[in-house]
TrEMBL record:
<protein>
    <submittedName>
        <fullName>DNA-binding domain, excisionase family protein</fullName>
    </submittedName>
</protein>
<dbReference type="Pfam" id="PF12728">
    <property type="entry name" value="HTH_17"/>
</dbReference>
<feature type="domain" description="PBP">
    <location>
        <begin position="95"/>
        <end position="280"/>
    </location>
</feature>
<dbReference type="InterPro" id="IPR010093">
    <property type="entry name" value="SinI_DNA-bd"/>
</dbReference>
<dbReference type="InterPro" id="IPR024370">
    <property type="entry name" value="PBP_domain"/>
</dbReference>
<dbReference type="InterPro" id="IPR041657">
    <property type="entry name" value="HTH_17"/>
</dbReference>
<keyword id="KW-0238">DNA-binding</keyword>
<dbReference type="Pfam" id="PF12727">
    <property type="entry name" value="PBP_like"/>
</dbReference>
<feature type="domain" description="Helix-turn-helix">
    <location>
        <begin position="7"/>
        <end position="54"/>
    </location>
</feature>
<dbReference type="GO" id="GO:0003677">
    <property type="term" value="F:DNA binding"/>
</dbReference>
<dbReference type="InterPro" id="IPR009061">
    <property type="entry name" value="DNA-bd_dom_put_sf"/>
</dbReference>
Length: 307
């Protein structure tokens, strides 16, 4: 990835998981260098990555858990919960369709519990269940007990290892993480990648507390990828698309995951959900992301489960 690539303020906001206003504030304070192309403000990817590597705190905590923006705070809004940038694009299309939409950047487990508590109207999930070798539905049943729900596919992504360029340690399997001296950096509890790791360690009979760095938690794919790229860890679990955005990394593919949207069945005929399904079924979001690396949008909009 060309580190001199010019990014818009919106693209930087997506990478840092903050608002555009926060990006402008960082620029004004001199913490995030920028330049003008004509009258358009632009940032280099290198500058953004260097900001992440400095690990400076932000008011909206990029790379860390961002507090919920809930329906209680914005009663007229449709709140979409999850971390992938495809959800930012979905939110934009919802707004264009006349449905006020807000984003809450938290992991899959917390997204489902927020949906159960009526704090959000739409959760995203990529939670793998090791007992059944299936995605999302077992967790929807557990975390939304007694609540009829609908699971709709958004995309498929590939999960695997972030490793240093050339994979010098030859890390290829989940069992390799238990080799002496291997340092990992972990995602926060509730993140889909963290649950994927924990489930594979459990099925392999590996005690996670024996892994060096297991308790070293960060809150985003780009944060764990950056940690490996800087040599502060040997390996992390994350999605393929982020590996393409960070220099000095290779990606070891391990598992294709299903990334779904979940909403309550009682809302299926509401205007926001009808607008949501319309966006998924008309193909405008599919067209936008099908050409990007790391997304398989073949089944976008397909109902995977209803119960």
């Amino acid at each position: 990835m060309n580190q001199d690539e010019a990014l818009t303020a919106e693209e930087v906001a997506r990478l840092l998981k903050v608002s555009r206003g926060t990006v402008y504030a960082l620029k004004d304070k001199g913490e995030l260098p920028s330049f003008l192309v004509g009258r358009k403000l632009r940032f280099t990817r290198k500058a953004v990555q260097e900001y992440i590597e400095r690990d400076q705190p932000l008011g909206e905590n990029p790379g860390r858990e961002v507090p919920f923006v809930t329906a209680a705070h914005q009663p007229e809004s449709f709140v979409i919960c999850g971390q992938d940038i495809i959800l930012d694009a979905l939110s934009n299309y919802m707004n264009q369709a006349g449905v006020p939409s807000l984003r809450s950047y938290v992991g899959s487990y917390d997204a489902l519990t927020a949906l159960y508590k009526d704090e959000v109207q739409l959760a995203s999930s990529h939670l793998w269940d090791g007992e059944t070798d299936t995605y999302n539905v077992p967790f929807v049943r557990r975390l939304l007990p007694g609540v009829p729900a609908v699971v709709v596919n958004l995309t498929y992504r590939t999960q695997g290892f972030y490793v240093a360029k050339g994979n010098p340690l030859g890390l290829k399997t989940w069992e390799d993480l238990a080799r002496p001296g291997i340092r990992i950096v972990n995602r926060e509890k509730g993140a889909g990648s963290r649950i994927l790791l924990d489930e594979h360690l459990r099925t392999a009979g590996i005690n996670p507390q024996e892994l060096e760095g297991y308790d070293n938690e960060v809150q985003s794919h780009i944060a764990v990828a950056s940690t490996v790229a800087r040599g502060r860890a040997d390996v992390a679990v994350g999605s393929e698309k982020i590996a393409r955005q960070v220099d000095g990394l290779d990606f070891v593919p391990l598992q294709k995951e299903r990334y779904d949207l979940v909403f309550k069945k009682k809302d299926i005929d509401t205007r926001p959900v009808r607008a949501l399904m319309g966006i998924l079924e008309t193909g405008i979001l599919k067209e936008e992301f099908s050409s990007l690396g790391g997304y398989d949008t073949t089944n976008m909009g397909k109902i995977m489960w209803m119960g």
